[in-house]
Design goal:
two-stranded antiparallel ribbon; mainly alpha; 277 residues; 5 helices
């Protein structure tokens, strides 16, 4: 059985003697080498993770920088294209303006030339007529006017004969063929009155002033003052195979009170008169 070592003697006379370098102090702590290794490994792991984070940040920053560079490049390209487009539009507007201006000038020039030509031609024709009239005897001029009027009358009679032939085949509601007339004694062309009735039924409804104007324009004479007789004369003149008759209900008829008014009726005749043909 071993004996426990004795403690060193306490020096009471002076300062303690330093311990030998090879002898450890009983209060010092010894560090485990494995613990230091683990700390080194953990530190290296943190450094590696930090490197990854920095690498990611650098990559992201690179993408942003590249995107910014692309945007700037695109902006510069668009600015350049816009400037080219504006320049092209300006050139097109100038070219179009010059062409339109030239076309307008040419058209105005042609219109002015045409107006001058027509005006000169009208003046020349007027001068020629005046010279001819000055050299043509009055008798020949009157004969020429009479000849024109006679030709208009012949045309009117031929046209009216055909219109009467067509009107003779119509029913009261079918459109009439208007007859021509000379608007004045000196007229050189025959025309139809604007208020000529559309069909036979309308003839019975003509207002007195319109009926009076029609018989006057067609030169109908020796007319009775009775309205229905004027209408019958006009119907006979235009060649329709109808005559109108006014019927007044008798006092003993069964007509309702207040309805005893004269009414116009159309009667078909066998053959219209031919004295106007």
């Amino acid at each position: 059985m071993s004996t426990a070592p004795k403690p060193p003697p306490v020096n009471t006379t002076g300062p303690p003697t330093p311990a030998s370098s090879t002898t450890s102090s009983p209060t010092a702590k010894h560090k485990d080498p494995m613990s230091d290794l683990e700390e080194v490994v953990a530190l290296m792991a943190k450094l590696k993770e930090s490197e990854k984070t920095e690498a990611h940040n650098v990559a992201s920053a690179g993408k942003v920088i590249k995107s910014s560079q692309k945007i700037e490049t695109l902006r510069a390209s668009l600015t350049e294209k816009r400037a080219k487009y504006i320049a092209a539009i300006d050139a097109l507007e100038k070219d179009l303006h010059s062409k339109v201006e030239a076309a307008l000038k040419d058209r105005l020039r042609q219109q002015v030339y045409k107006n001058i030509k027509e005006s000169l031609q009208a003046q020349i024709d007027q001068k020629v007529r005046e010279k001819l009239m000055a050299h043509i005897p009055t008798a020949i001029r009157e004969q020429t006017a009479t000849h024109k009027k006679r030709m208009a009358e012949i045309h009117m009679h031929l046209y009216n004969a055909e219109a009467r032939r067509l009107n003779a085949t119509l029913n009261p509601d079918q459109p009439l063929n208007p007859l021509l007339c000379l608007a004045s004694p000196n007229a050189e062309e025959a025309t139809a009155p604007a208020h000529f009735p559309a069909n036979v039924n309308e003839c019975t409804k003509l207002k007195d002033d319109v009926l009076k104007s029609l018989v006057k324009e067609y030169g109908l004479r020796d007319l009775s003052p009775v309205r229905e007789e004027k209408i019958n004369k006009f119907l006979e003149f235009i060649g329709v195979p109808f005559q109108c008759m006014k019927i007044v209900p008798s006092s003993g008829s069964s007509s309702p009170a207040g309805s005893k008014q004269a009414r116009m009726f159309l009667l078909r005749v066998d053959k219209p008169s031919s004295k106007f043909v």
